[in-house]
Amino acid sequence: MIMKLHELTIVEAHNALVHKDISTVELVTACIARIYSIDNRINAFITILDEEALAQAHTIDAKIAAGEKIGMLTGIPYSAKDVIMTEGVRTTAGSNMLREFIPPFNATVIEHLNQAGAILIGKTNCDAYGHGSSTENSDFFVTRNPHDTTRVAGGSSGGAAAAVALGMGLFALGEDTGGSIRQPASFCGITGLKVSYGRVSRYGIIAYASSLDTVGPLTKNAEDCAIVLSAIAGRDNRDHTTVHETPTDYYAAIKKKDMHGLRIGIPVEYFTKDLDREVNNIVMEAVRKLKVQGCVIEEVSLPLTSVAIPTYYSIAASETSANLARLDGIRFGHRTTLAQSTEEVFKQSRMEGLGAEAQRRIMLGTYALSAGYHDEYYKKAQKVRTLLRKEFESAFKKVDVLICPTSPFTAFRIGEKSANPAEMYLADIYTTAFSLAGLPTINVPCGYISDLPVGMQIAGPYTDEMTVLQVAAAFEQVTDWHKKRPSIS
Amino acid sequence: MSITNKQIRSIASLAKLHLSSEAEEKYKDELNTVLEYFSSLAQIDTTHIEPTNQLTGLQNIFREDIVEQCPERTHQRLLKEVSLMKGRYIAVPKIFIKE
Question: If phi over 0 gives left and psi between -120 and 50 gives alpha, with beta otherwise, what is residue A221?
Fold first, then answer.
């Protein structure tokens, strides 16, 4: 085999396993070797599970040898963002507060992947609690961009995106609240899907903002995304916000759509004169590639785009201030040794355990929810959120999908934006509106500027992951951007 | 309208955070910057608009009320996470303190 094992897609690895060209042990060994050879320069992983993963690989190889039929994910090595609970395996959320936390149970998504036979090889770095767009808010270390190690991998699921780009696992599970899968996928040149709110169970995920959080896959292409989504999607009795629909095989249907006549909306507010000219040109060139396949291109207007960021941060900060209240040194998290009273245990433990960004968002959210300000900030933002959703609903009466850039710029330098929180919040300018409306949105690589990847978002109506994946696959069929890998070795 | 030091101290107390005086100043400035940015929301007319409390439209989700046995393994893992135990009991710091 000419290709290196860690470079395989899920489909390729599956076929190689079925035809016994490779063994699960070889595949897992290759991905773990990759971590040990390059992750000291990248910092994608917080925890590596080599022994456990290899033991599982041996079990699966025995099953294959015994002639057992295997599923698409059987024996496929993957990583999970460190906000996803893994039984008996430290889960930190990227924070000092939970540095030693070992969950007693698995998140539903992990259970699903276990049942599918996928093999967890490690837990990946992120901004603590998902608070950030660069992993610079991880309490442990910054994940570096595989294409240029002086730059950020994006965030908050930066470790997950860097891992997939470099073949440290064939796919990753991430979590996206306001752009945390799509933006790092864009910065690292891979495919990443934010699912519709409620499509995938949030049970066992360390919550950031409960009305926005979603769990989804980061992969090398849209096909692989469809495979992982089919395994993790669906109703869960332990998460009552999961949507009630019969399970779908997204992979089986992903190539079955004729692009002819499919209507693509270009939201003009995402292509203003403030947008980097080269990013603009690359995304518009990508749209032309779809037009050649018969898609109809139409301009649409989403005037409330300009208030998506303040709406998002009002809601997200409010909800996170409530969610993180459980990190008090008693129910969860680090406990100070300096306190004499319960009140001091809370205050001192939180001060010692929570990083600056978590504290900042807790302060902001507590203010926005406090007496006298609740209506002005949280409730007001929830009303604007209703208007934003209506705006998308009317756009989707005219078009089938929307396409726009994922980020206004390519990966920025480490330290470039971390001094100014308000400026960092603007990094999410193109991703938060889709989160507020709960829409399925995928990042697809569509070009490069000075060797740094550019990604575009394809967004569809609520719960229509299928169309989003089909358009992404149609684009990837006529382009090679998703096949380009970082040159680091 | 901007946030004062007194307000910052009151928010920190509600949020159960000990803030140093430097942190107090820093968060005051940062919160004021962010809140000024949030003020653009006030310009959106939301008269008679219902707030979005949830997206799925689901309501009253029921399931059978069945007792599931907690596996011994989970039981042990849970207790391992407790930072201080006295015998079979979980110990927490004193709640009542003599003034």
Answer: beta
CA distance B87 to chain A (A): 18
CATH number of the domain bearing residue B26? 1.10.20
Show Cβ contacts of residue A85 under 8 Å, excluding neighbours closer than 6 positions.
A91, A103, A105, A106, A107, A110, A204, A205, A206
List the 7-66 stretch of B: residues with Cβ below 8 A of A. 7-8, 11-12, 14-19, 23, 27, 30-31, 33-35, 37-38, 40-42, 44, 46, 49-56, 58, 61, 63
pTM: 0.96
Q: Is residue A392 part of a domain?
A: no
Structural domain total, chain A: 1
A226-236: per-residue pLDDT in tens?
999 999 999 99
Task: Give the gyration radius of chain A's Cα atoms.
Answer: 21
pLDDT, tens only, A181-228:
999 999 999 999 999 999 999 999 999 999 999 999 999 999 999 999
Q: Is residue B63 part of a domain?
A: no
The answer, yes or no, to whether ipTM is higher than 0.90 is yes
